[in-house]
Amino acid sequence: MKWTEFFIPTSKEVPADAAVPSHQLMLRAGIIRQVVAGAYTYLPLGYRSLRKIEAIVREEMNAARGIELNMPAMQPLEWWELTGRAAAMGDVLVRLGSSGGDDWRARTVLGPTHEEVITEIVRAYVNSYKQLPLCFYQIQTKFRGEARPKSGVLRTREFLMKDAYSFHTCKEGDGGLDDTYDRMYAAYCAIFSRSGLPYIAVEADSGPIGGDASHEFMVPTDAGEDYLVQSEDKAYAANLERAEVAPLADEGGAADAPLTEVHTPNLGTIDEVSTFLKCEPRKMIKTIIYEANGEALVALVRGDHEVNEAKLARAAKVGMVAAADAALINKITGADVGFAGPVGLSARIIVDQAVTVMHDAVTGANKTDYHITGVNPGRDFEVTESADIRMAVKGDCAKNGSPLTFKKCIEVGHVFKLGTKYSEAMSATFLDVNGKSHPMIMGCYGIGLNRIMAAAIEAGHDEKGICWPMSIAPFQVVICALDMRVEEVSTLAGKLHDELEATGIDVLLDDRDARPGFKFKDAELIGIPIRVTVGKRGLADGIVEIQTRRTGETAKVPPLDAVDTVQKLVQAAMEADCARKTK
RNA sequence: CGGGGCGUAGCUCAGCUUGGCUAGAGCGCAGCGUUCGGGACGCUGAGGUCGCAGGUUCAAAUCCUGUCGCCCCGACCA
User: Fold this and answer.
1) Taking CA A573 as the corner, what is the angle to CA A501 and CA A53, rounded to the nearest 5 degrees?
2) Nearest-CA residue relative to C1' of B1
3) What is the rounded distance in angstroms from the CA atom of residue A438 to the CA atom of residue A436?
4) Over A26-80, what HEC string results?
C-alpha cells in the first residue's frame, strides 16, 4: 500500500478531549474519530488493526471448536423481560422507542449481549442430549446505554464483541460445561498472547449475571477502571471485587474496658466521631445496614475498612444486597442514620473477621447522637456469623501470607459458568437417556475487541507514539522513501515494497513528497513495528536501514538482503509477542 | 443521576471580566518559489450560522434566560 493512495490523517496536536494515552494516540494517529459520545468511526488504519484482532479471535475460537453465527442487534424486549434482565439492566438496555409507547419500537431493544437470542435458538432446535454439547460464537456490534462513556474506546455505547455461549447436559465429564470452560479459557490465553498483550487471568465476581465460576482477563494500565489484586509471590490474583484477604491477628493488649455511652451530637460519620473522640478509625466499628430479600442485613467492618458488597452477598448467601433506606435503618436501630451499632441490635449480623479481633472499640449506640466506647466483640454482642466481607487494602496479605499488591487494569475478556439461569427462564430443556427433561447448563465467554486494541496501545507506547504488537499492527512494515525525486530511491523503495508485499507482509510505502523528519515522526506516531529507510545517503554506502520501533535497534543491510532481514524480524516479533504473557 | 469544566476555522487556542468598525493567532489546507536524513522557509490565498433558540440593547462571540452537545470527577457497570 502506498501512503499517497491510503488515508492516514495524523496530527501533531494533542486532542483536548482525550485524557488517556490510547485515546490521544488513536486520535493523533488517524485510527479513530468520534461521532457522538461513546461511538467511534474506525478509520482505515484503525479498521485494519481491528480486523486483524478479529481474525486472531476467529481462528482461536474455531480451533476451540466454536461454531460461528450471526445474530441481530435488534431483539424483542419481551425476551429480556422473560429473563428478568430488562429490569436488572435498566437504562443500560438501549431501547428503540420510549418505554411509554406501544409500537414495535418500544418493544425492541439493541442487544448488549445475546444470551436471550441464542437460548431461544437452542430451545427451538435442540431437544435431546444427543444434540449437546454446543458452543456458538458471534463477533458483532453490541450496544449499552452507558451513563458515562469514557477513555476513548475503552468504555463506549457501541462496541465490537466476541461472545460465545455453550450448552451442556452436565457440568463435569465428557461434553460437560467444565470441559468447554477450560477450552475457552485456554483459547483466551492463546488470543491475548497472540495479540501481544501482557495479560493476567484472575478470579472474578460473576455479578448479577449469576453462575458459580468466573475468570477475567486483565491488562495492567493506569487507564483501566478495575483493580487487580495480586500477591507478591504471584500465587494469587483476583479482581478487587472478589479478592480474599488473610485473617488479621488479634493485636491483644486490651484492657477490655467497660461499655460507656458518650454524647456525640450530630456526629454520624466515622471521620466526625474519630476526630471528636480522638480515636483512630481503625479502633471503630462501622455498622452498615443493608436490605436483602426484603429483610435487614447488618454488616460490621472496621472503621478504616469498606464493605465489599459482592463478598457480603456471598457470605450471607443472598442474591444481592442493597443499601437500606433511612426508614429501615430507623426501624432496626431506633436511631437516626449514623448511630447504628451491634450492641443490643436484633437483626442478622455478619461480622467481618477484622472486627472479631478488635478490643475496646467505638461504635454507634443505636440512640440518636450517642456512641459507645469499650465495645468488645463476644462480650458485648454475640458473633454468630463471621466472614471476610471487606475490600482488600494495602497492607493485607493473601491467604498464603504473601503481601497483596494493587494495580489498575482493563478487563479484556471474561468467562462465566452460567448454570441454568437462562435455560430455565426461557425453557431451553433437553431429554436425557431416560426421557426426563432438564434445563441445559450454560456457559458464556466474552471478549471486547476494541479493548484489545486500546489495551495494546496502553501497554505499548512511548513519547513518540504507538508501538504496535506485530500481530495486530495495521501494517507490519513501513518504508520511508526519503526523497521520492531521487530516481534510485523511489525505484528501490518501490521494488522493496513489491517484494515484501509478494511475501505476504503488510507493507506501507511512504511515497509522500515530504521531508525526512516529517516521515519519521509520522511512522513513529502510527507505530509500525518495522521501518525501512531508503535514502540517497544510505544508498551511497550501499545500504538501507531497518529499524525496530519498540527497541530503536537499527540494522544496516545491503538492499539485496533487505527483504530477507525484514522477514526474519517480522517472524521473530510475532513469536516474541506470543511470549509476553505475564502469568 | 450528582459535582465541575468547556462549546469561536479541520486541530490547539486567544478575544468574553468592562458590549462598539471588517472576529484573531499558531498548526493544517491551496498556489508559486526555495528547500530535502528528524515535524523547513518566504510570498499569496481559501476557510467562521462565534453550539442552538429566545431576550436585553442603537449595537451581542461578549450581558440574561432556556436548550443541546462534549470532557473530567463521583455514582453505576453481566
Assistant:
1) 75
2) A147
3) 7
4) HHHCCCEEEEECCEEEECHHHHHHHHHHHHHHHHHHHHCCCEECCCCCEEEHHHH
> Which bases of chain B come closer than 7 Å to a protein CB?
1-2, 11-13, 26-28, 35-40, 69-78
**Beta carbons of A350 and A307 less than 8 angstroms apart:** no
CA A16 / C1′ B46 distance in Å: 26
Digit-coded pLDDT (tens) for A114-143: 999 999 999 999 999 999 999 999 999 999
Q: Are A57 and A553 contacting, i.e. CB atoms less than 8 angstroms apart?
A: no
Q: What is the pLDDT of residue A407?
A: 93
Q: Which residue is nearest to nucleotide B13 (CA to C1')?
A: A16
Specify the pLDDT at position A359. Answer: 92
Cell of A173: 465429564
Alpha carbon A123 to chain centroid, angstroms: 30
DSSP A256-322: -PPPEEEE-TT--SHHHHHHHHT--GGGBEEEEEEEETTEEEEEEEETT--B-HHHHHHHHT-S--E
Using one digit for the tens of pLDDT, what is the confidence trace for A401-431? 999 999 999 999 999 999 999 999 999 999 9
- Nucleotide closest to residue A112 (CA–C1'): B78
Domains and CATH numbers, chain A: 18-73+112-243+406-457 (3.30.930.10), 74-110 (no CATH), 260-387 (3.90.960.10), 475-578 (3.40.50.800)
Q: Residue A76's pLDDT band (boundaries 50, 70, 90)?
A: very high
- pLDDT reading at A209 higher than 70: no
Nucleotide nearest to A90 (CA to C1'): B76
Distance of CA A240 to the CA centre of its chain: 12
Between the alpha carbon of residue A501 and those of residues A498, A563, A566, the distances in Å are 5, 10, 11
Contact A141, A158 (CB under 8 A): yes
- CA A493 to CA A553: how far, in whole Å? 21
A517 CA, B58 C1': Å apart: 56
Pairing of strands A554-557, A544-548: antiparallel
Q: What is the pLDDT of residue A322?
A: 84
Residue A314 phi/psi, 5-degree rounding, is: -65, -45
> Residue A583: its pLDDT value, please?
43
User: Rounded CA gap, A531 and A519, in Å?
Assistant: 11
Pure H helices in A503-552:
516-526, 536-540
Q: Which residue type sits at A72?
A: P
Q: How far apart are the first and last CA of chain A?
A: 37
